[in-house]
Amino acid sequence: MKALSRVYLFLIFLFLYAPIAVLIVFSFNASTTMSRSVWSGFSFRWYSILFQDQMLLDALRNTMLIAATAAIVSTVLGTAAAIGIFGMKKWTKRVVMNVTNLPMVNPDIVTGVSLMLLFTFAARILGGSLGMFSLVLAHITFCLPYVILSILPKLGQMNPNLFEAAQDLGCNPLSAFFRVVLPEIFPGIVTGMIMAFTLSIDDFVISYFTSGTTQTLPIFIYSMTRKRVSPEINALSTLLFGTIIVLLLLINLRNSKDKKPSRAPQMEV
Amino acid sequence: MRKKWFSIILAAAIVASFPAGPATAASVPSTGVTINVYNWGEYISPGADGSMNVNEEFTKRTGIKVNYTTYEDNESMYSKLVSGGASYDVIFPSDYMIAKMIQEKLVQKLDFSNIPNYKYIDQSYRNEVYDPKNEYSVPYTWGVVGIFYNKKYVKEKVDDWKILWDPKYAGKILMFDNPRDAFGIAQKILGFSYNSTKTEEWTQSAKLLEQQKPLVQAYVMDQIFDKMSSGEAWLAPYYAGDAATLVSQDPNIGFAIPTREGTNFFVDAMCIPKNAQHKKEAEEYINFLCEPDIAAANMDYVGYSSPETAAKKLLPKETQENPIIYPPQSVLKNSETYTNLPDDTSLMIDTLWAQVKMGGPGKTATLAAVLAGFLLLYICIVVFKKIKKKRELQ
Amino acid sequence: MKAKSASFPYLVWMAVFIIVPTALVVIFAFTDRSGKFTLMNLEEVGQYSNVFLRSIWLGAIATAVCLILGYPLAYLIAKTRARQQNVLILLVMLPMWMNFLLRTYAWMTLLEDSGLINRALEGLGLPAMHMINTQGAVVLGMVYNYIPYMILPLYSILTKIDGSVIEAAEDLGANARTVFFRVTMPMSMPGIISGVTMVFVPAVSTFIISKMLGGGGNLLVGDLIDMQFLGSAYNPNLGSAISLVLMVLILICMGIMNQFDENGAMEGGVMV
Q1: Do B24 and B123 fall within a single domain?
Q2: Domains in chain B, number
Q3: Which partners does chain C have (≥3 C-beta pairs < 8 Å)?
Q4: Cβ of A67 and B229 within 8 Å?
Q5: pLDDT tens digit sequence for B303-330
């Protein structure tokens, strides 16, 4: 039984990692004309080409800018929204939450298409065209539900009398919020913001429909896969993957040094 | 979907390492203007393997930055322009698409005083049917469609389109992933015009394509480069210009133009969409691409045929004499150009094309039944649970 | 807390960016190009019933495969020691940090006729297999991309199952099999439900995987929608009608799944 489960684990992880290993190995392939699965010598040339690719660097910058903006705006909006929704009557709350859930329940492609219809409609009336701005708006929209849903439970856990107690003790509502409520729900806010950021970085489908002329990293990758094959794409994935591994190692090292309990991500699904 | 905080650090690290990207060596100070250029994939010299990086060269000379993106076929370019709400400054549609866009007022008249290099364009490529008064477009390249084949596996003589229907090569045949080019092949086999408006002829062509579908490995565009050179596919219809890359890099790959049945002659030209934001700079870009030495360097890499004799003369001798890139009159004689079709015909083509790709039309009733079935299941479960609850309460 | 007004900006945002776009899809679905009311688009969707059936079928297979492969894995992980658990779950999630386009692209390299798997088979003297551009390849792509969405909820529910319940069952004479089928499995039902929903929804509506691994001949609903909006057949009205039908279909499926969720933990939405 034990051996069987070992074998099973091995096979599943082989399945999960084989494609990634292939990408990494072939990023060092010297060939240009041959297919992506024929090995023809070791080389770093795709990495040097990658770093000279202005389009790629622009796409990377756009992705980061959009993700940062979307994360910040959706966190601020979402925090306010969560507090408001928490104070709502049961029936209104239900309606608002159902609409909030819509972008999560809907397939991405439908969300993308519907936002594209809105933006082109607006562009026709107000002038202008799709691009950075519409991308940011779209990303904020699909990040908001995740932010709200990560804050609401924290509000539920909070002692409802705290806010009033602070006011009785002489705080005005605003400072009562910043000094009492905010620290209580802060972990939820941080989780929401990080989720928003990563969702935004990774999004392809919604961006594909709302990007106009702007390229983000996933869109750039997509257009690369539609063209003549270039191991540049492998080099890019290797770099991205490498960065993640290094960060994971650093964090684990720091954790073990601090003798803190391991803080590997917890899935509260 | 919880990637947690690792990604945030990753992101910060990446942003920090290239705050604005390496500065390009600009000899002319930047004008701060970026033009959006929307071109076919694999259709400009990118600066790899010692070729000229055309866009970078343009920026170097004019200080205008180029945001260069690509599309796969005329139809998706059109969709992106109309429904994607994108504002491009320079686009490269083909003949029939130019006519369509002129008709729908999607492109604007060019100011030819900003494009002095237009004088290099050969007379024979001016005043084409799609732009009879030559107001909207400047030709970029031209070419014909033919069949790429792998000599190792395809031993017979390739000279007609029907070989793409040969069951011997099942699973090794690639096909165009856009309606006009795909239908065009079927139309030539059946002896129809590309520009037929007869429903009957289009449905017959669609039937022929449906028959071919089981033999087709994949419907692709630029992925044929990879699939042909790796031997993954053996037969693929594509544009003659790409022979420069495929045939010259791999002696196993041949190219043939089915002259007997006839082929498509196309011109791809540069246009400026109506909603372009930098018309003057866009014209500067078009003018730049028409400069004979630039055009020559560009075509040398891209492999398509230039409409400028001045540029052609700058190309290596063997390219000029290459019958694939500059086909003789005998080939061109039996070729036909696509023209813009009436709206109802185009709509019909779109529907037929989707049907080809999904293998025939389905029945409305089936879909309705599926939806109703799911709904019924839902209702049953809800009712069942209600009853169960009631029983438990009793 | 009198903070209802705090949600005002969000409510406006929601109206503009969720309700209006959804309404636009509905409006487009029921109008023709000139903006007149018509049912033609919806009728035309019927012609594409094959595509819908294929999407549902392939999505269902992918979901089933994810469940069959993912359940044992989640179970095994939940059984290991806490430290190991973290490492293993991290390993399950790690591929998700890589863009899904890149991961799918990698499968092309593996599955092609002249790809690595066939090369390996050839090396071993085995006959080559044709894998790419088939429906199987599309299912594989879906399973590969979405299996973590199945494993994670299963794992989190399995770790929450109280060990004493299982001990109690064992003490009462249940063998390992009975314990699994009578105790563990029913208790992990919410995890199964949320995993199934989280895999099925994106699998049904995917539009890149079929393009990359299906060779363009295995059209799925997502590709069809893409075709109408940004692809080779410009027809946003038809595209909207297809989106609308897809949306309704998904909502019904979610409704069915929610009915199985005894605790009502999902409250009408997927928690990701």
Answers
A1: yes
A2: 3
A3: A, B
A4: no
A5: 999 999 999 999 999 999 999 999 998 8
Chain C segment 170-209 residues within 8 A of B by beta carbon are none
Q: Contacts of residue B363 in chain C, CB cutoff 8 Å?
A: 46, 49
Residue pair C230/B76 in contact (Cβ under 8 Å)? The answer is yes
- Reading the block at residue C223, the tokens are 């590709």
Asked if the structure places residue B80 within a domain, the reply is yes
Facing residue for B358 by CB, picked from C48, C97, C133: C48
Q: Considering the domain boundaries, does residue B2 fall inside one?
A: no
Phi and psi at residue A228, in whole multiples of 5°?
-55, 140
Instruction: Find the closest chain C residue to A80 by CA distance.
Output: C6
Structure tokens at B107: 């492109």
- A127 Rama class: left (phi>0) / alpha (psi -120 to 50) / beta: left
Question: Tell me, what's the pLDDT at A110?
Answer: 96
- State the count of interchain CB pairs (< 8 A) between A and C: 247
Do residue B254 and residue B175 come from a single domain? yes
Closest by CA position to B85, among listed C124, A68, C12, A134: A134
Which domains, from first to last, does chain C contain?
Answer: 49-260 (1.10.3720.10)
Note the pLDDT tens digit of each residue in B58-78.
999 999 999 999 999 999 999
Q: All domains of chain A, ordered by start, with CATH?
A: 60-216 (1.10.3720.10)
| Residues B315, B320, B326: CA angle, nearest 5 degrees | 125
Q: ipTM for the complex?
A: 0.90
Q: Which of A5, A37, A93, A228 to mutate to test the interface with C (most CBs of C within 10 A)?
A: A37
How many cross-chain Cβ pairs, A to B, lie less than 8 Å apart? 136
pLDDT mean over A71-84: 95
| B285 and B251 part of one domain | no
**Exposed e or buried b for every residue in B65-77, given b needs 16+ CB within 10 A?**
bbbbbbbbbbbbb
Residue B22 in contact with partner chain A when CB distance is under 8 A: yes
Chain B's closest residue to C90, CA to CA, is B3
- The Cα–Cα gap between C37 and A50 comes to 51
- Tell me if A107 and C204 make a contact (CB, 8 A cut-off): yes
pTM, two decimals, is 0.91
Same domain? For B136 and B280 the reply is yes
Inter-chain residue contact B7 with A61, CB threshold 8 Å: no
* Distance from C-alpha of B277 to C-alpha of B35, rounded to nearest angstrom: 8
CB-closest option in C44, C97, C249 to B3: C97
Residue range of the domain that includes B55: 8-142+268-325
Task: Tell whether B203 and B280 lie within a shared domain.
Answer: no
The answer to whether the Cβ–Cβ distance between C269 and A105 falls below 8 Å is yes
Identity at C58, one-letter amino acid code: L
Please indicate, yes or no, whether residues B183 and B91 belong to a single structural domain of this protein: no
Residues of chain C scoring pLDDT < 70: 1-3, 261-272
B161 lies in the same domain as B32: no
Q: What's the CATH code of the domain at B238?
A: 3.40.190.10
Helix (H) or strand (E) segment spanning residue B335: strand B335-336
The C-alpha atoms of residue A193 and residue A68 are separated, in whole angstroms, by 9
